[in-house]
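Thread amino acids onto this structure.
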């Protein structure tokens, strides 16, 4: 128990009534914009059936509006967490709103092993300039093999916490390691913060450099080469299956759209004097959609297959031909299979170019971010 009396420090992530009203307002704004776009697009097509491309454009614009509306929907948190640090120790409470279950952990000062405090370099992005790091701080309370974490920012006073622990006789240690990267490491592999190198806290607060800024992160990472290899392996195990699922979904989307294009749009397109589909609004729209699907769902991911454009060419060609064949069973249509080949050769070039472009942008972005150029 602390020798002196302190005011309790409390925190809860429960939404306040003000937060709920703000979220509901944002939900209404984005939801109404999306609804108006969809309704207006349908109305335009009803008035003039030749403007279906405009409907697709409105649907594309409405999609992110729907996403933001759902994101801001004032739903109840699945887990409501709160804590209180008082003169007797630390009290933590979890409320699982879906199941109605609750969990409490009370940790008296006598059960606390030590406090580790160090740096939390926060990268601040700068538009059209070099990013910089703001030096925040992180406190790790270690008790019976468990951790409680509290972050401090320039407007905070870490001494409100440190003085309580010191008054209760808890050993307080300082580390110069980057605790931000250390916790990222802990996400992938097991990290024992009890073993992190540290020195006694000097109680001046100068060690933290709280609120200082720099274009470089001067704090070293606390990880071995073996740990780096483990993280790389774990990341692959996590990301590769996600990328493969996205690649399969993209193939299916391209195939479905290809069948639709070959059966609904392509038979009615005008032909040039050589019997090839003329380049017009409908063909341009199809090419853009074919390019956007892998661009949005696959190309920005890690561990993508280099031969994806070839797979897209095969799948879209099959889908187009299948759509044309189905239509030809019910009505006479010109032979458009040559047009399919020409169109998808162009698509292949576009897919490959976009893939190279995106991977190049990612490489440059990662390099600039790593070296903060």
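Threaded sequence (373 positions):
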């Amino acid at each position: 128990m602390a020798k002196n009396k302190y005011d309790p420090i409390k925190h809860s992530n429960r939404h306040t009534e003000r937060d709920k009203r703000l979220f509901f307002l944002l939900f209404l704004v984005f939801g109404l914009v999306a609804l108006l776009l969809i309704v207006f697009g349908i109305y335009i097509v009803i008035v003039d059936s030749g403007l279906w491309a405009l409907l697709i454009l409105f649907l594309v614009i409405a999609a992110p509006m729907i996403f933001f509306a759902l994101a801001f929907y004032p739903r109840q948190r699945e887990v409501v967490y709160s804590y209180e640090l008082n003169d007797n120790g630390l009290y933590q409470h979890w409320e699982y709103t879906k199941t109605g279950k609750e969990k409490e952990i009370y940790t008296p000062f006598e059960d606390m092993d030590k406090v580790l405090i160090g740096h939390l370099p926060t990268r601040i992005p700068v538009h059209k300039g070099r990013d910089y790091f703001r030096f925040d701080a992180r406190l790790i309370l270690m008790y019976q093999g468990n951790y409680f974490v509290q972050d401090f920012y320039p407007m905070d006073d870490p001494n409100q916490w440190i003085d309580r622990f010191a008054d209760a006789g808890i050993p307080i240690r300082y580390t110069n390691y980057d605790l931000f990267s250390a916790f990222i490491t802990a996400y992938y592999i097991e990290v024992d913060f009890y073993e992190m190198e540290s020195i006694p806290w000097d109680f001046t607060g100068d060690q933290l450099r709280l609120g200082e800024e720099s274009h470089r992160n001067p704090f070293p990472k606390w990880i071995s080469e073996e740990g780096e290899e483990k993280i790389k392996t774990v990341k692959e195990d996590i990301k590769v299956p996600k990328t493969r699922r996205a690649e399969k979904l993209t193939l299916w989307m391209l195939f479905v759209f290809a069948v639709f294009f070959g059966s609904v749009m392509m038979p009615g397109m005008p032909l040039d004097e050589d019997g090839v589909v003329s380049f017009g609004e409908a063909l341009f729209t199809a090419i853009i959609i074919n390019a956007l699907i892998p661009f949005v769902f696959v190309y920005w991911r890690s561990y993508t297959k280099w031969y994806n454009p070839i797979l897209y060419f095969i799948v879209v060609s099959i889908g187009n031909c299948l759509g044309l064949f189905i239509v030809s069973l019910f009505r006479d249509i010109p032979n458009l299979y040559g047009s399919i080949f020409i169109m998808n050769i162009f698509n292949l070039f576009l897919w490959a170019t976009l893939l190279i472009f995106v991977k190049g942008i990612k490489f440059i972005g990662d390099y600039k971010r790593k070296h903060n150029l």
